[in-house]
Design brief:
By secondary structure, the protein is mainly α. The chain folds into 2 domains: 77 residues, no CATH class; 111 residues. It contains 11 helices and 2 strands; from the N terminus they run ααααααββααααα. The longest helix has 35 residues.
């Protein structure tokens, strides 16, 4: 049994969440990203295991056990990326290194805190829209948010003016654009240039709260 003092071996759970293949693929994905190069996964996993060093297999199999018990709530893909952020030569014997786990926990806390803040801002934005839309009839075939995105005050879309005044948060705006509710012309893109310049970043954040926003949308 390998003993590196990183994480205690607590055994393998009866119901497997991860397989050795899952761990291997996550590792290779993170490795390819870190090195900015392509890679090929083996077509025959059994044959690949047969080629691997005994110690590498021991570390891999131990990692499977830990990730199905003590660390079963961890996102293996994000975890492996943390490994390569700390160690350029991150490999099997480092899978359970405490430094990697600590970085993952730190990042996870920040992400969860960010999600909470984003949800609060989304609720504030939707509450504002709900109040604004009182007495406004939805357009035929559109729900409340879709109708809201089509409204104008003079030549300007209402949602653009509200966003510039801080009533609508960035993630809700990105949700509108990503869902096709809001289509911006060139002039409008210049008016929300900060949003446009960071659109890809906001899309990544949207992925973490999109299911929440979808539920909120149904309720208004």
């Amino acid at each position: 049994m390998i003993s590196d003092g990183a994480i205690p071996d607590v055994g393998v759970a009866n119901t497997m969440l991860y397989t050795d293949w899952d761990i291997y693929v996550a590792f290779r994905n993170a490795q390819g990203t870190a090195n900015d190069r392509g890679y090929r996964l083996p077509k025959d996993w059994s044959a690949q295991r047969a080629k691997m060093k005994k110690t590498s297999l021991e570390y891999l199999d131990r990692t499977v056990g830990i990730f199905n018990t003590a660390l079963s709530n961890i996102d293996i893909d994000k975890y492996m990326k943390c490994g390569f952020e700390i160690f350029k030569t991150f490999n099997y014997h480092m899978f359970l290194n405490k430094k990697v786990l600590n970085l993952y926990i730190q990042r996870d806390k920040i992400e969860k805190r960010s999600i909470l803040v984003n949800k609060e801002k989304i609720v504030e934005s939707v509450r504002f829209i709900k109040n604004y839309m009182k007495g406004v009839e939805n357009r035929k075939g559109y729900n409340t948010l879709e109708t809201y995105c089509k409204l104008r005050e003079g030549s300007q879309k209402v949602v653009i003016g509200h966003y510039k005044k801080g009533h609508i948060d960035n993630i809700t705006m990105v949700y509108f654009i990503n869902n096709g509710y809001l289509v911006l012309d060139d002039d409008e893109r210049h008016q929300v240039i900060y949003l446009i310049n960071r659109y890809r970043d906001f899309i990544e954040v949207l992925k973490t709260v999109k299911s929440f926003l979808t539920k909120v949308e149904v309720e208004i």
